[in-house]
Design a protein that fits this description.
The chain is an alpha/beta fold and 364 residues long. Helix content is 48%, strand content 14%. It has a domain of 239 residues: NAD(P)-binding Rossmann-like Domain (Rossmann fold), CATH 3.40.50.720. The protein is built from 14 helices and 13 strands. Nicotinamide-adenine-dinucleotide (NAD) binds next to helix 7 and strand 8. InterPro entries: Epimerase_deHydtase, NAD(P)-bd_dom_sf, NAD(P)_epim/dehydratase. Pathway: Amino-acid degradation; L-threonine degradation via oxydo-reductase pathway; glycine from L-threonine: step 1/2. It catalyses: L-threonine + NAD(+) = (2S)-2-amino-3-oxobutanoate + NADH + H(+).
């Protein structure tokens, strides 16, 4: 009889765990990493962090859009449509990829505008990545979201394991992603990892069509017009994080040792606020007469189904999730980053108006 079959039950379980750990050991150092959807809101900051850690040449950025010259100059970039499994496989093989950070997605508001596209990219795209991870032994990190929860989920200190019956295409596709990732991990030993991001706030790249985008738009509007029309109600509290905390946490989970992980999908919470609390902070730090109007649209119904705060003790315990920035810090950073951009734009507009005024009139 083979040794494994003759083992007592506990020894057999330990053997199975060790075998799973061996199968999950996608620990090449430094790993070659592919980032899908790298030109989105979060992608370029994530690519920068990965390149700083693993080396420029070891991180391949990809998307279906054309990168800016600076993005192309900062390291390898390839066109990769996650819906085309064969083409994606060619990139993985050609570049000897070990880990995939899967950022291609259609976000909540964009998904409600085009459900067919949301289903296709979020479900079929993810299935392609996961299947290639199985075939080629890759580690896959694919973020989930607070949008994976739904109207019947407890809204305060929402735990990792709770009712998950979302009613948006985005949420449904993310629950599918979480469950399928766990299934592939259990059944085939695919090293799948995920964390449920809150709304992510950043200044360097525009948001991609989510329900928390107001918390970015408001800074542009404050600096441009000193007024903003918010698409959510004044008291809609949602979990949020600044992008540096988001990327730092993603790196921590990506690099965490296998045996530290007690689950495959983790809640992460950094801070939470409502539009009126954000407005109060913008008035305090930027302009006391900043004007706000609330005109809720279809995104209100989405936000109403999401948690207000999340419980994240397992992420803190297992892999050291430790966000550092709260609401006042985020407002300070966003204003400091965007202020020079709008000052420069205003100066350029002024000098081109002056040049126009000085130009001799053309007589026809
Ligand atoms: N930004 C947030 O606040 C937030 C919150 C929760 C979760 N997330 C998750 O984080 C990840 C990244 O989000 P983001 O905000 O950068 O999204 P984004 O919408 O800004 O970017 C997504 C990128 O995917 C690309 N893409 C679309 N279809 C594709 C396809 N067929 N093949 C390859 N690429 C394709 C787009 O061109 C885009 O650059 C997503 O999984 C998203 O669900 C983001």
């Amino acid at each position: 009889m083979p040794a494994a079959l003759s083992m007592a039950m506990p020894a057999r379980r330990a053997f199975a765990r060790a075998a799973l750990a061996r199968r999950l050991s996608t620990g090449a150092q430094p790993p070659r990493v592919l980032v899908t959807g790298s030109l989105g809101q979060l992608g370029s900051t994530m690519v920068d962090a990965l390149r700083a850690r693993f080396g420029q040449a070891n991180v391949v950025a990809s998307d279906i859009r054309k990168p800016a010259p600076s993005q192309r100059a900062s390291g390898p970039f390839v066109y990769a449509d996650v819906l085309n499994r064969r083409a994606l496989e060619q990139v993985i093989v050609d570049y000897g990829i070990d880990w995939v950070v899967h950022f291609s997605a259609i976000l909540s508001a964009a998904g409600e505008r085009n459900p067919a596209l949301g289903l296709d990219v979020n479900i079929n795209g993810f299935q392609n990545v996961l299947e290639l991870a199985r075939v080629h032994g890759l580690r896959v990190l694919s973020p989930s979201t607070i949008g994976a929860f739904g109207p019947t989920t407890p809204k305060d200190l929402t735990p990792d394991l709770t009712i998950m019956r979302p009613n948006t295409i985005y949420g449904i596709s993310k629950v599918h992603m979480e469950l399928l990732g766990e299934y592939y991990c259990e059944k085939y030993g695919v090293d799948f990892r995920s964390l449920r991001y809150p709304g992510i706030i950043s200044a360097d790249s525009p948001p991609g069509g989510g329900t928390t985008d107001y918390a970015i738009d408001i800074f542009h509007a404050a600096l441009k017009h000193n007024r903003y029309t918010c698409f959510l109600q004044h008291d809609t509290r949602l979990p949020m994080a600044y992008i540096t905390d988001c990327v730092a946490g993603t790196m921590q989970l990506l690099e965490a040792p296998q045996d530290a992980l007690t689950q495959r999908v983790y809640n992460v919470h950094a801070c939470d606020f409502s539009p009126e609390e954000l407005v109060a902070e913008v008035r305090r730090q930027h302009s006391a007469d900043f004007a706000i109007e609330y005109c809720p649209d279809f995104r209100q119904a989405i936000a109403d189904t999401w948690p207000r705060t999340m419980a994240d003790a397992p992420a803190r315990r297992d892999w050291g999730w430790n966000p550092t920035l709260g609401t006042a810090d985020i407002v300070r950073i966003m204003l400091a980053k965007l202020h020079p951009v709008y000052e420069q734009a205003a100066a350029a507009a002024e000098s081109s108006a002056a040049a126009e005024a000085e130009a001799p009139a053309v007589v026809v």
